[in-house]
Amino acid sequence: MAKETSEALEIHQFMNDRNVVMSFMGELTHQVTTSLLKNLKMDMSMANVGVLTQKRLYGIIVECLDNISKHWIANDIEKVMGRASPPIFMLSRSNGFYYIITGNHIPSDQIETLIKKIELVNSLDKKGLQEFYRQTLAKESPLDRDNAGLGIIDIALKSGNKLEYEFRPVTENISFYVIQARIQI
Amino acid sequence: MNALLIDPSEFSPKVILDPTKNLFELSGESRPENTSKFYIPIIQWLEQYQSVLYWEKDKFGHSAPKVFEFKFDYFNSTSAKFIMDVLMQLDKMAQEGYPIKAKWYFDKRDEDMKESGEEFSKLLKKLPIEFIEI
Lengths: 185, 134
Prior knowledge:
The complex is a heterodimer. Chain A is of the alpha+beta class.
């Protein structure tokens, strides 16, 4: 068996063992996102998930994928690493939860701001998050529109659980950023 | 004033802003590829419409009641900011004394959609919002 085919089997086995229901690695264009979401809608209605959970999961995934496409620094990555290294999205289901994981490269100087944002939403309860959502909605100027602000609050609100994250330095200036949200089924 | 009509897609809402038929509606899913490109014409239309209302009131001494209906299945956080702008625009008209109200529809199984509407309404000064369960 060729090395590549046995590796593919291993990757499949690895994902299967971790109950991955959907995964994607590649450029997350709006078209790709739409197609992933379409599949997700079909999967969820088949998996007997309640309507509110379906809507929340859908919303979390949209925000996670939007975040990647907004912050993805494809050209910089290729320059620094000498090859393309696209983002990854994974959805798994186990122990009564859906896990939504995304990973992508970011400039390391964004880490501090991101940690602050995530830690802040993790420190708030539902009421606090709603208040923060309202404040952000009211103050955000049109120029800030594409910055992740509301998105992360929305993910936290819909998830109802703390967000997990990790940064792994790749080069001096670039890190790989993984964020995980989970939602009870 | 011409109507602004936009057909819905898998990721953008249906828009009906039709003064002749007195129909005003945003419905469906909202996560357009380019959110500002989608919403700015709507907001500009509403800005223009305010002067039509002024003219109507000036000519007839009153302005007919208008109801703006919001029937979203889903909107992403980027759309939320623009929906807020749409509501702010309507709120401005309400503050000017025009008889305008909004109806916010939500699936009875989707408490989040209701809560989003309530969050919006807390940021408005005058526009009445009626919440309707479907």
